[in-house]
Amino acid sequence: DLVLACTLEGVAVLSSKPLVALFEFITSREMLDRSLVLLQLVVDAKNTS
Which end of the chain is more exposed for a tag (fewer CB within 10 A), N or C? Predict the structure, then answer.
């Protein structure tokens, strides 16, 4: 299963990285921008349905 494989890969990457690096990655500018875009897409989808 592709989703499961990606999830396991993600877990492996997260477990091999320090929490500080993970936190910096999550709070990075690019990640925040992507999250806002995804949030906007979800809101738009709910409004149109």
Answer: C
36, part of any domain: yes
Distance of CA 16 to the CA centre of its chain: 17
Has residue 2 been placed in a domain? no
pLDDT digits (tens, 9 = 90+) for 14-28: 666 677 777 777 777
Whether 34 is in a domain gets the answer yes
**In sequence order, which ranges of the chain are alpha helices (DSSP H)?**
2-16, 19-26, 29-48
Between the CA of residue 43 and those of 1, 36, 38, 47, 49, what are the distances in Å?
29, 10, 9, 6, 10
